[in-house]
What does this fold into?
Amino acid sequence: MEIPFLSLKDITAKYADEIHETVNRVVDSGWYLQGEENARFEQHYADYIGTKYCIGCGNGLDALIWIYRAYIELGVMQSGDEVIVPANTYIASVLAITENGLKAVLVEPNPNTLELDENKIEEVITSRTKSILLVHLYGRCAYTEKIGDLCKKYHLHLVEDNAQAHGCEYKGQKTGSIGEAAGHSFYPGKNLGAFGDGGAVTTNNKAMAECIRSLANYGSSKKYVFKYCGRNSRLDEVQAAVLDVKLRHLDEDNHLRQQVAAYYYKNIKNPDITMPTRLHDENNVYHLFPIFCEKRDALQEYLKNNGIQTLIHYPIPPHLQECYAGFWEGLSLPITEKMANQELSLPMGPCIKKEEIKYIVEALNRF
Ligand SMILES: *Cc1c(COP(=O)(O)O)cnc(C)c1O
It folds into this structure.
């Protein structure tokens, strides 16, 4: 058997009729940017997440960059202010902070939940700490009541990186609506994926929404009048239309992911393999299914020889990347580094077949 990590082809095929009809409609309309499709998707996505505003933009990294740039433009933050971010995130979370001249303060995750450790936040707070960038990594809800309390106590602006968690909830509220603003990615492999790059910011803050809409459109809100030195970072009409179709099926697709995860949790029995704490389904949309193994590289090779494709998220944490040489001199992050050495992501998605999951589990238990 040959099992790919994720087959985008299968996901698209599932909705092929609706998607082809939609793409053809946009192509035939003759209008390709900043039109009805974008407005419709933004409205639907804001309603889905539960925020007043949604602003489409070029990609998930830009969405996060725009949020912090808006805080600076609005006078809420300034260069050199500190933002707390989990050390084990994808590099885009950290780039969004450093791109804005802000200081990224890396905090270790809880090894059981894999998310930002709520007990390690307070010790790094200084007079310059302005924000927490909470990443719902792997599709798991990273928000806790304690994190909310710390934000109140220290007047920290809570921002969410919801790139991996479309549809995830905390106590009935969607992630992406818990903090003051959230960045979303519609990279093709995400739970809600476009046919190329795409992203969005959701927020209830009107000033932030207006600022970001300008920033992502050259800094302009009125044609040929420029308030900010912005950039061009927009969601195009074809992507918005496709996302609108896929949004209608997001809950159903997430539910299929949860069924795959339930099978993994129930049947993986190899004592050399550990899995993160199992959350209630509403708190996990299983963007990825990470497992941990001391002999990770051997396990990956063995699975590959059995036709099973796996990936590592992520093999080198941000603080060890060349681009950040000298940024966090002497910082020791043993949990993050151990995770990077032991993590392996199993095939996960809404189109994996029952016999494939069974085959994967049998192979894992034989290792
Ligand atoms: C994918 C991702 C991003 C960046 O999104 P792009 O659309 O690829 O720019 C940011 N943060 C996390 C956690 C991601 O997984």
